[in-house]
Amino acid sequence: MIIYKLRADPVIDFAAEELKKYLRMMMPESGEIPIRFDPKAAEGFRLGLAEDCGRTSEAKDPMLDDVLHIEADEHGGIIAGSNPRSVLMAVYRYLRENDCRWLYPGIDGEYIPVQKIRPVYYHKMADHRFRGVCNEGAESQQCMLDTIDFNPKVGMNVYMIEFDNPYVYYERYYSHKFNENRPPEPVSYEQVKQWKRLCEAEMAKRGLQFHDMGHGWTAEPFGLDSTDGWRTTNEAVPEETVPYLALLGGKRELFGGVPLNTNLCMSNPAVQHIMAKAIADYAEAHQNVDFLHVWLADGSRNHCECPECSKKRPTDYYLMIMNELDGLLTDRGLKTRIVFISYVDTLWGPETVEIKNPERFSLLYAPITRTYTQSASSKTPRVEIQPYLRNRWESPKTIADNLALLRDWQRSWKGPCFSYEYHFWKHQYYDPGAMYIARRIYEDIRGLKELQVDGYVEDGSQRSFFPNGLAMYTYAETLFDRERPFEEILGDYFCHAYGPDWKEVADYLQRISDTFDFAYLSGERSADESKSKWFDPDRSRQLKRIAKLVKSCPARPEGPLPRVQAVSYRLLELHTEFCKLLAAAMAEKALGNDETAFQKWQRMCRNFGLHEWEIERYYDHYMCMKTYERMLKTDGKRSLVTGA
What we know:
The chain folds into 3 domains: 3-125, Chitobiase/beta-hexosaminidase domain 2-like (Chitobiase, domain 2, 2-Layer Sandwich); 130-224 and 268-496, TIM Barrel; 501-632, no CATH class. The longest helix is centred in the last third of the chain and has 29 residues, at 563-591. The strands form 4 sheets. It has an 8-stranded parallel beta barrel with strand order 9-10-11-14-15-16-17-18. The chain contains 20 helices and 18 strands. The protein is globular, with a radius of gyration of 25 Å. It starts with a strand and ends in a 12-residue tail after the last helix. The chain has 644 residues and is an alpha/beta fold. It has helices spanning 10-26, 84-97, 141-153, 167-174, 189-206, 269-285, 314-331, 399-412, 435-446, 448-451, 470-480, 486-498, 502-516, 518-521, 537-543, 546-549, 563-591, 594-609, 612-615, 621-632; strands at residues 3-5, 35-37, 45-49, 67-73, 76-81, 101-102, 110-111, 120-125, 130-134, 158-162, 209-214, 247-248, 251-252, 291-294, 337-342, 361-365, 417-421, 455-459.
C-alpha cells in the first residue's frame, strides 16, 4: 500500500500524512505505508486536485467551493478535491466511509475501528460555502488547537479569530473566572499574540479559510485600546480623538466607558480616512488573512447625533468607508476579501450608498436579537420592516421581523451573503439536554437556501460538547449536506458515542430537554414578566422532577469501551449533577424566590466547578455560569467576576 501525492502542496502533504496515520491505526499490522511524490502515479492512493486526476469540478470558485471526489478500493485509488483543503476533507470523508468518526475535538474524541478498508465511491460539493466557527467564551490554547484540527474532520472549512489580539477570551480561561477552586494563571498580551500566530499556522496547514478581526476598528485606529474587550477603562481619551467620537446627549465620550462599544462621528471625512487606512495597513501586514471582517462598535443605539451624521443611516456612512477602503486596497494591489456586517444598528440596510466593487465584499448577517424558539421557513409571514429610529429602534426578535430586514438588505446587495449565528453562545445553555438546540440548528440550516444565505460562522464557545457534541456534529453535517435527515445524523452520532444502548441515552436526554424547556429557560415563557422572565410557579414543580429524572440516566456498560465512549459516559454521569444543581436554582427562580435562586446558583458555580479540570475540553465553565448568572442575579447583586 502506497500513498502518492500528485502535486507539491503543503496541505496535500498534510492530507497524505493524515491518511497514513489513520490507515495504520485501522490496520495495526499493515506495516509501513510510504508516501511519495509522483504526478504520474497510476496505482496506490493518489491525492491531488480534480484536474490532477483527469476529473472536472463543478466549483464556481475552486478556492471557496469544496468538492470532494473519491474512487478507491482496498488497494488505493483517487482521493481528490477542488482545492487543497478539499483534498484533506476527502481523506477524512474516505475514512468516515470506512467507519471512522470524530465526535469531539482531541484524541479522546476519535472513534477509529480496527478493520480492513472497504471500497468507496463518493462525490459531493458542499451545499454551503461558509461552514465554521468563531472564538468566544473562555479558551485555552490547547482547546483552540484541538478545535482547528477538528473542524475539517467534520467538514467545516472556516475558522475565525476575533480581534487583533484575542486576549480577552484567553484571559477568561487562564484566570479561571467563576471557579474559585482553581488559582488564577494569568497570561500576557504578548503570549496570546504568539498563540494567535500558532493558530494561524495550524489553519494554513489545513487550508482553512482564515477569517480575522471583527470589532476593534472604531477603537485602535483612534488611539483607544480595546484589548480588554468589554471592560470599562479609566484611561483618558486622547485629546485629538475626542472630536472623532459619536456625539450623544451633547457629549463626545466613551460609550459606557468601554472603547470597544464606542461608535464614531462617521460623517467626518477624517474618521472615514483614518479607519479605512488602518484597515488597509492591517490587510497589507497580514496577507495570510482570507476574509478580513470590518465591524463597527459592539455597542448599539449609540450612533452620532450631530447634524451631519443625522442626514444618513449609519449603514450609508459605513459603506462609504468600505468604498474608500476598497480604493486603498486596490491601489496597493491587495486581493484581501472584506466582510461587512448587518448587526444591531446596521441591520437596517443603506438608503443611498452602494458598494462600488462587490467582487471584494461579502455581507455578514448577524441577527443577534432573534428568537431561537422558531426557525425560518416558507410559512414565515412577510412583514414590513420596523422603522429605523436613530438610537431609538426596537430590537427585531421574531423571525419574520429579522427576515424583513435581511430582504431589505438584499434589495441593494446582490453579492455573497452568509450568517453569523449564536446557537453556541448563551442559547446552548438554555437546553441542558442539548437535543432541542441540535434540532433547531438543523432546521435553521435547512432554511438557508430559501433565504439566499450561503452558510454560517457560529459565534460561540469552542467547548460546546456537554453533555455531548450532537449539536456541533449536526451543524457541520447539515451545512455540508442539507439533505441528510436529522434522525440519521442523531443515530450516527449517538451509536458511535454510546454504543449499543444509544437509543436509551437519546430518549433520556430528550426528556431532560423537554423538562427544562428551552422556551422557558430562554425567558420566553413567563407567567408574569413584570416579576421576571422566568416567573412560573407551575414550571417550578416540573423542574423539581429533574432530581428523580436523572436517576434514570443510562449507566456506563461494564467492561472496556472505546475511549470516546468512555468519555461520553463520563460526561453523561457528571451531567446528572449539573442538571440537579441547575434545576434546584431555577425552581426557586420560577417561584419568585430570587435571593434563594441566586444562592443556589452560587453553590452550582462552586460545586460543579470542581469538575471543570476534568471536562474542560468539552465544557466551558465560564460561559455557562455567566449565562446563568445573567438569569439569576438579582438587582444590586455583584457578579462573582470583577468586570465580567
